[in-house]
Sequence to fold (357 residues):
Amino acid sequence: MKKVHVFNAGPCLLPQVAIDAAVEALKDFKGTGVSLISISHRTKEWESVMDECRANWKELLNIPDDYETLFLGGGASLQFLCAAMNFLEKKGAYLETGVWAKKAYKEAKGIGNAVVVASSADRNYCYIPKDYEIPADADYFHITTNNTIYGTELHGDIDSPVPLIADMSSDILSRRIDISKYALIYGGAQKNAGPAGVAFAIVRKDALGKVSRYIPTMLDYRTHIDKGSMFNTPPVFSIFVMNETLKWLKAMGGVDAMHAIDVKKAETLYAEIDRNPFFVGTADKEDRSIMNVCFVMAPGKEDLQDEFLAFAKERGMVGIKGHRSVGGFRASLYNACTQEDVEALVAAMQEFENLKK
Fold:
């Protein structure tokens, strides 16, 4: 079979051991004789997976005891609304760093008073705003830590005078996080944590119950805390693969070890972009994402874009076309992407350069 190198932004490449475990579980889940996708979520065999998955999240991210980890349907897009529903009383404050941050703000604006504290829209979201003041009277401050479309990233935990909420869909489990700085962290699993179909929410329990509005049952985090993420039938397949992915990450040495691997991959690709006269990075260097590397053809060479895409595809590169809203190229270097994959892309870029110069 032809060797391929997967750089999809999501659903993304998953570790092979997690895929293999899922294949076996689809045939026979834990020796029950029942397929994973036919198992009752009320069996002890399934409940053990839920317990193990929560424990693995807790261990990998050192989640304090006063937080709960939830596994929910609806993706991060539903969490945009859930976050505001559970935390917005008088005012929500937002840092607008891309499309997904803007969508989160829109959901909050739809149910109450929400303000944009700072935005990088003036330069097509190619940087992270720096000089802004978080309103002290806000109920919370919402950030998107990694911007998949534009290739920018917050590289550390910020200090906030109000409860901090973060969409970490695309950089969760790629670096150490001080969970205690956040009231809520959420995201879709389909980048570093597992397949599409489940979202995670890590929420500080004493931060809930402070809004006066009615919260619909399914949007209330307390509902899912009380029922152990099984108020309704959970997405069992996605959670199973998530747990296998977390087990793989532990075997790789955990979050700190993975961060070192991820940084090396990103540095390798950015070095080639900066060296190669045919390509230009789109994000400001200080804010470059280690998860999503975005670049375009150099000025005067724009007409070679489709040719390079075809050239790279012939050499096994999958998923490097940029988001439809910005064009160019995007290589997503999530945890399961390997150094070998990155070096193959670099080699294709160098070969293209030699062919065209």
In short: The CA atoms of residues 194 and 241 lie 6 Å apart. The mean pLDDT is 97. The longest helix spans residues 254-275. The domain at 16-251 is CATH 3.40.640.10 (Aspartate Aminotransferase; domain 2).
